[in-house]
Amino acid sequence: MKTPTSGEQARLREFVQALKEEIAALQQNGGGSSTSVYDGRFNRREGEFFVYVFTIENPLIVVDDAPAKIKVGNEEFDGQIVSIQGSEVAVGIKRDFHTTIPEAKLIINRWFLLEALRKRYEEVLSGQRELNTHLAQLLFKSSSANSVTDQNDLNLPSSANPPNDDQLQAIRAVCGSDIHFIWGPPGTGKTQTIGFLVAVLLRRGLRVLIVAHTNVATDNAIARAAELLEGTEDYQSGKLVRFGNVSTTVVLPEMVILDKIIERLGEQQKKQIKRLREQLAPVRTELDCLRSASERLSRRDESQKDLGKLETNLQSCVHERENLQAREKELILGLEDAKTNLTDAQAAGKLKRFFRGLDPVKLQNHVSRLQIDLNAIRDAVSANLTKRNQIQTAIERKVAEIECCGTKCRSCFLATASAKDLSESGTKNSPNRNGKSQSKFMQPNANSVH
């Protein structure tokens, strides 16, 4: 691939001008001819086209895949020439006429290939497309081409009609040359040679493109190659693919039709997906169980931390209660002394009160204050008891949560081990894709069980 030189550009401009003049001449002389077609029969649906096979009275000279219009009644519809074989032409129409079209006009654009070629060369001249002249240089002897006879093992597929000596020589010449022509009159086995050649090249890991001037010729070559490769991995894996419009006269095997290849390989993929999903089910079950166990272990760790805090709070609560009870005892004794003194003061006369320093009013106030303090301490003791009971209840709840987490984790691990044992026993008795027994389904990570 390269940018054309100045000399090549001059020749391309000259060729583009010649194409323009040829297209203009065709258009002026009625290049878009109209042909009557009869007895159209629906053949198949192909993409956006409905393919009908018509009978023609006169020979129709036009290349396959040429754009066309089909006129039915007074309406025209876009279409495409699929193939021409004898007195029949297959036309793809962008309209469904159901089973038959009794009569129609086929309007053909005869200059579409020239127009496509002109656009390609103009893209090369404008720099939008690169030009590969290697094949042209080899074809017209502008550069030397390798031309030797390949003496290696051809690895030909088995066939009831193996190639003759001339066909073998042609195949070896193609395998050893950059470019090679095989010529022969009709019936000399050119298509059979192409079939064997495709098989040889595919088995050498090469890519092969088959093109022809008609879809019928292309289909015949691919059908012969498919016949030789049927039963091989290259054929079964869909490496032989027919692109484009398929003729209506050649029956191609399904495994060269792209839609059929996708459908068949898709079935294999569906079976493999189903098998993998069946194998994945116990893994997911085990993973869910381990994930659940991990979450429970995390909750257990959190519960143990909370339990430690609760136990610390409980110790603080017990220590606080001991202090409150000591203070309560102290206040009770002080209150008893104060009440005794108050009784003595109230019973003594004034002189005795004076000498003993007994003041009933002060003693009464002191008794009242002690009683208030004692009531407050008793309220604090009661509140402490309530708090201690709440903490104790919370501790019991946390202990139960920890034990529950441990029990469920153990149950989960036991269930996982049982499922794994069943899976292993099942896979030991079931062959894998290679026909060998599988000894294990999976080996769990030991760290995930801790």
Counting DSSP H or I runs of 4 or more residues, the number of helices is: 10
Tally of DSSP β-strands: 6
User: Structural class, please?
Assistant: alpha+beta
Principal-axis shape equals: rod-shaped
CATH hierarchy: architecture of the largest domain: Orthogonal Bundle
Report low-confidence residues grouped into runs of 5 or more. 430-450
Integer count of domains: 3
Percent helix range: 55-70%
How far apart are the termini? Answer: 63 Å
CATH class category of the largest domain: Mainly Alpha
Portion of residues in beta strands equals: 5-15%
Output the helix-strand order: HEEEEEEHHHHHHHHH
Rg measurement, Å? 50 Å
Please supply descriptive tags for the structure shown above:
Thrombin, subunit H, disordered C terminus, rod-shaped, alpha+beta, 3 domains, 450 residues, 6 strands, Helix Hairpins
